[in-house]
Design a protein that fits this description.
- By secondary structure, the chain is of the alpha+beta class.
- It folds into two domains: 110 residues, 3-layer Sandwich (Rieske Iron-sulfur Protein), CATH 2.102.10.10; 295 residues, no CATH class.
- 19% of the residues lie in helices and 24% in strands.
- Strands 12, 13, 14, 15, 16, 17, 18 and 20 form an eight-stranded antiparallel sheet that branches. It has a four-stranded antiparallel sheet with strand order 5-6-7-8, with no helix packed on it. The chain has a three-stranded antiparallel sheet with strand order 1-10-9, with no helix packed on it.
- A hairpin with a 4-residue loop joins strand 5 and strand 6.
- The longest helix has 18 residues.
Length: 459
């Protein structure tokens, strides 16, 4: 890749070509948990915080009518920082001269002005629409009034009892953060466990040990943990097909003449992947740039079985990624927790078993704040990475030409934004193509919240 192309794909600030593409999609800006007084006591009296998204500094607050307000952070009077504003229930007041703004950005008062002044009627602070979905607050940062319908993927269609959302910060550019999730080959190495634990030891709320869960299907009557399959069959056959939302990825690992492991995942353009975590649990992970060198990932854990235990899942994760900033305790300053003895005896990477997020964190942060793609040498297993970059370059051209961005941003495709189905299982080698669809449908039929209708496979 040329230096100019690398810059084009990684710079996301206001006015940048790639930033214009990302602003064509709803973007996550905060967890609803961040405003829960039971989890964040300071929100009891001041439900407001500063957020930075796509290189923009904003304030996010909840008023006494439970309306969300997302406003530019600099006061339109003289530019003072509204993150230090007075939350007064019905709006936020700048302490510099007392100007007050409601959740829509309307200027309510300019108290230092002469009696009868109509100045505030001519002032409007830029505000951004906010919607709440599955425990996450999403904002529209694009052109006012141009927002597309919100997609109804499984993680948004499931009831709140069956979805848990969490986030974490990585100190790197958004694109390298996202690319690790659409790389099917890395799981055989980066997440390799050198020993397999009993499948009975895997809890549905564990963070890292879920990777030890059994794949669907059996080998001679024996269920295998995903870790064993990834370790023993590390040369995958990767293919991808276009879907309305992006790509469907199919990864085959032939095991015997009769059996093959099949893993079906998805890329939802421009920055989301969907993967199976177990036979009944799916992860949908989104990546939103904070700026060019910092990224938040937002993960939605969707259960197709019973309700999720949110408290247990939250507690398990916050020990590694604590609020309120959700910056991992592991990082470059402590070598991401690397242990050479563990690398020899327990895991391929040597950075722990409980929190596999740190595995991906090391991979993407160790590349540097912005990966220099002019120095890389891509192989056959990088075909999805290359295809995604081409799609991103095409999207930039489309948006610059005044055309809609692809996928979820295209309102004409809204009705097709359903599912998508995933699978991780051991299938009959000759019929894996129908086997995985049957498995996915069985999972959907068994869920207490789905409509039970087969997911159409777009041509």
């Amino acid at each position: 890749m040329k230096t100019e192309q690398n810059a084009l794909l990684t710079q996301i600030g206001p006015g940048s070509p790639c930033g214009a593409v990302l602003r064509s999609y709803w973007q996550p800006v905060a967890l609803v948990d961040e405003f829960d007084p039971a989890l964040e006591p300071r929100m009891t009296t001041r439900p407001m915080k500063a957020v930075r998204v796509l290189g923009q500094d904003l304030i996010l607050f909840k008023d006494d009518q439970a309306r969300w307000g997302l406003l530019d952070r600099d006061c339109p009077h003289r530019g003072a920082d509204l993150a230090f504003g007075r939350h007064e229930g019905d709006g936020v007041r700048c302490p510099f001269h007392g100007w007050k703004f409601d959740a829509t950005g309307r200027c309510m008062e300019t108290p230092a002005e002469p009696e009868g002044s109509k100045l505030c009627e001519r002032v409007q602070q830029r505000s951004y629409p906010v919607v709440e979905r599955s425990g996450v607050l999403f904002a529209w940062l694009g052109e006012p009034g141009a927002e597309p319908p919100f997609p109804m993927f499984d993680c948004f269609a499931a009831p709140g009892t069956h979805v848990f959302a969490f986030k974490g910060m990585w100190k790197c550019n958004w694109l390298q953060a996202f690319e690790v999730g659409i790389d099917p080959a890395h799981t055989s190495f980066l997440h390799r466990f050198l020993n397999d634990a009993s499948l009975d030891d895997v809890g549905s709320n564990d963070a890292g040990r879920q990777f030890r869960s059994a794949s669907a299907g059996q080998v001679h009557g024996e269920r295998w943990p995903m870790t064993r399959i990834m370790r023993e069959f590390h040369r995958p056959d990767i293919s991808f097909e276009a879907r309305p939302w992006g790509f469907q990825l199919t990864t085959l690992r032939p095991m015997t003449e009769e059996l093959t492991h099949v893993r079906v995942t998805h890329e939802i353009f421009p920055s989301t992947f969907v993967i199976p975590l177990s036979e009944t649990l799916t992860i949908t992970q989104m990546h939103v740039p904070i700026d060019d060198t910092h990224t938040y990932w937002y993960s939605f854990f969707t259960s197709f079985d019973g309700p999720v235990n949110k408290q247990a899942m939250r507690d398990q994760r916050t020990q590694f990624i604590p609020p309120p900033l959700y910056i991992p305790k592991a990082g470059r300053d402590n070598d991401w927790g690397f242990n050479d003895e563990e690398q020899r005896t327990t895991t391929y990477l040597g950075m722990g078993e409980e929190d596999i997020n740190v595995h991906d964190q090391w991979a993407v942060e160790s590349m540097g704040p912005i990966q220099d793609r002019t120095r890389e040498h891509l192989g056959t297993t990088d075909k999805v990475i290359m295809a995604n970059r081409r799609l991103l370059l095409q999207a930039i051209e489309r948006v610059q030409a005044g055309q809609p961005a692809p996928g979820v941003a295209d309102s004409a495709l809204a009705s097709q934004m359903r599912g998508p189905d995933t699978v991780d299982g051991i299938a009959p080698a000759g019929t894996w193509g129908t086997w995985w669809k049957d498995q996915a449908q069985a999972k959907r039929d068994g869920a207490p919240w789905t409509d039970k209708q087969p997911q159409k496979q777009p041509a």
